[in-house]
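User: For my dataset I need records formatted as: sequence, then structure tokens, nothing else. Please produce one.
Assistant:
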Amino acid sequence: MSAPIPRRKRRRSAPLMFLAPFGVLFAAMYAVPVGYAIVESLHKMQRSGLGLTPPKRVYAGFENYTKALHDDALWHGVGRVLLFGAIQVPVMLGLALVLALLLDAKSARLKGFFRTAYFLPYAIPGVVATILWAFLYMPRSSPVVSMLDAVGLPSDFLGEDAVLWSIANVVTWTWTGYNMLVIYSALQAIPQELYEAAELDGCGPWRTAWRIKVPLVAPAIALTTVFSVIGTLQLYTEPRVLRPLTSSLDADYTPIMSAYHKAVENNDYGQGAAVSVLLALGTCVLSFAVLKISARLTNGRSSL
């Protein structure tokens, strides 16, 4: 008969048992793929002769990273998504904040219906949502284009100057409801005593929203900002689906499209892995910077 396990050992092993499922999933879904991408980025396929023999996988050092850093198309894609995020993210989060404040207002009616209606676009897969909007962008099938043409306002939503903002429209339509729900949940956690005290001090709805609600949901806004920045740098689905419909989108339109183009279409897995690793590092740095800036702004506003 085995001896019973001492209580002290059981207490020490209990946290490890709870952390084990997360650790296994983290290693399988994150650590191992990242490690594999790093290893792959340090190798290349070397072809010799007339190409009649199979290529050999050889160590390349940082050659793939050097090529990626000198790739003008990749840098153009990076600049494009940064411009996209600088305009789209504030607009989307501003709309999400306004919708959350409207739902949280005392005079709001049918809150459950509007909450579901705002969130519903997020439940539609990104590919399906982009296809739906594509019908409204294409001149042959779009009633919007026909109406604008009828009043003398010709428009080309998939043209070179407008396609980026057409993509931004799809992303905003899809993700505003999700961010609204995060902010609305933070609003629900605010104690009602604060609203009662503000009402006794003579604060109206607008002043209460600006002086009490917005500062207290600033951490939720910071969280959605970080998520939105990460999503911006990972922009892929919408331009990839719209690419067959317009010549304004090339294979390197966004950084992830560039990595896919190099790895899958050009069979250069080392180069694609190097672009992916650089994009991951850039995402971590930018997300950390946004988080720090948001924390400083939040602390500064709360001290006022």
